[in-house]
Amino acid sequence: MAAEKTQTMSPAVIVVILVVAVATAFGGGYAIGSINNASNQHHTLTFVDDYNRTVSLEGYPQRIVSVAPTPTEILFAVGAGDLIVGLDAWSDYPAQTKDITKVGDFELNLEQIITLKPDLIVSGDLVPQTDLDILESNGIPYMIIADRNLSEVYGSIQLIGNVTNHASNASQLINSLKDRVEAVTNKTLANGVSHPKVYLEYWPMFTFGPGSFGDDIIHLAGGANIGAIKDTEYPSVTDEFVVSQNPDVIVYTTGPSTTTNSTEIQARPGWIQTNAVSQLKIYSMDDNLVSRYGPRIIDGLELLAAFIHPDLFT
Questions:
Q1: In sequence order, what DSSP letters do the residues of 24-63 get, joined into one string?
Q2: 3-state DSSP assignment of residue 161
Q3: Closest by Cα among 194, 210, 308 to 250
Q4: Does 168 share its domain with 210?
Q5: Which of 20, 211, 231, 268 has the most CB atoms less than 10 A away?
């Protein structure tokens, strides 16, 4: 999708403040662009990313390298996919990603990224910042997206939309996502609706703790997260812990690097004693729907709500 056209402004230095309605876990979430239309030669865009870093660009980026799946999915969702010239190997959605140059996986190919001549790197918070700093020292600015709850996802979508000159697309997408969330929560959080205990496993014997994204969507889906009593956001658990918490619903994620299945879960020591296993309320979902904090997280929320409350989503 082509970038949106900018509006005609009077010949003066104009400061446009694009406020993103988000208070991220790291602060930030707004963009300030200053444009000199008198000469039409000076155009700077300054914004704060999710690590509270101030980033300045010489105009809207035209060549972007995304080095994490979440920002990749957001870029495509707001219509900025045609600006991407390089991707990390894990960015595999949407289908158009397969035709874009790959620049590394756990380790970035910094030389290759530099040869692509991007004017912006968009990253998640698991990419080594030392690599990003090296790229910045070579004149390539970077921004970090790091979300911890649904409202922060909206903020990241709007920020990326603003930075890529797709603000209107981003706003429309956010409104659509909010409508879908409301359609779920109007049912799951209504008065009188029960909140079954849920164990959501994103990796064998690892779950979501308090303050994590998984904890947030379990609540919105109408469940009570058994991992909420843990001390960390992404704790490991034991068989004894899960059995003692007696979840009513078990959801595990599937992907190319995990062999978890319903039979394996039922065979875990003591798990037959839980309500979820004894009543066969064991479900699977694509791990990308709870690990990538872009627009598809709403797909994950809708699916999780249907698992927890099948009577409400028939």
A1: -TTS--EEEEEEETTTS-EEEEEEE-TTS-EEEESSS-SS
A2: helix
A3: 308
A4: no
A5: 20
Q: Which residues of 165-201 are buried (b: 16+ CB within 10 A; e: fewer)?
A: bbbebbbebbeebeeebeebbebbeeeeeebbbbbbb
Q: How many helices (H) and strands (E) are present in the chain, helices listed first?
A: 11, 13
* Bridging pattern class, strands 64-66 and 84-87: parallel
| 111 and 223 both lie in a single domain | no
Torsion angle of the four alpha carbons 178, 184, 190, 195, in this order, in degrees rounded to the nearest 10? -120
The 10s digit of each residue's pLDDT in 91-125 is 999 999 999 999 998 889 999 999 999 999 999 99
Q: Residue 48 is part of which domain span?
A: 13-173
At CA 167, angle to CA 166 and CA 169, rounded to 5? 70
Q: Are residues 231 and 201 in the same domain?
A: yes
How many domains does the structure of the chain reveal? 2
pLDDT of residue 221: 98
SS3 218: helix
In a domain, 90, yes or no: yes
- Helices 297-308, 213-220: axis angle to 10 degrees equals 50
pTM: 0.86
Tell which wins on pLDDT, 147 or 135.
135
Please give the Cα distance from 114 to 139 (Å, whole number).
Answer: 9
Q: Is residue 204 part of a domain?
A: yes
Do 53 and 160 belong together in one domain? yes
Q: Is residue 230 part of a domain?
A: yes
Question: Of 81, 31, 38, nearest to 59 (Cα)?
Answer: 31
SS3 state at 101: coil
Identify the bridge partners of residue 42 per DSSP, sorted by sequence position. 36
**CATH number, domain containing residue 241:** 3.40.50.1980
